[in-house]
Amino acid sequence: MVADIHEKYPNDVKIVIKNFPLSSHKQANKAALYAMAAKRQGKFYEMYKKIFEKYSELRNNEDLPLQYAVELGLDINQLKADMADPALQQEIHVESRQLRDTGMRMAVPKFLIEGKEPPKRDLDTFSALIDEALKKK
Description:
It is globular and about 50 Å long. It has a single domain, classed as Glutaredoxin, CATH 3.40.30.10. The chain is an all-alpha fold.
């Protein structure tokens, strides 16, 4: 649905993706690190998309994003070095804290429009809220 929103509102909606790896998913934090390391090579969204599309496969192989990195043409040595950088883990902690501090239900993915969680997750609901927000601007 994120791609649909981006396509429908290419100049009006800013899509921000933040990390909130759930502790109940033991591979989630490492997957977030892979995405953040890919960001340093300009491929965050591409890595993020691959990870989310095949998240169930990470349960058996938490280093599957290395294969994705090769497919994306990333420098693997640089990716590994970046993953070891404590600044990336700190950024993930900051982003996680931001969601916790909202007091909202801790489920992911979390979608916010104008800082509020839509009552339903469908294109019509999101579009109505976005259209309403755009009228106010």
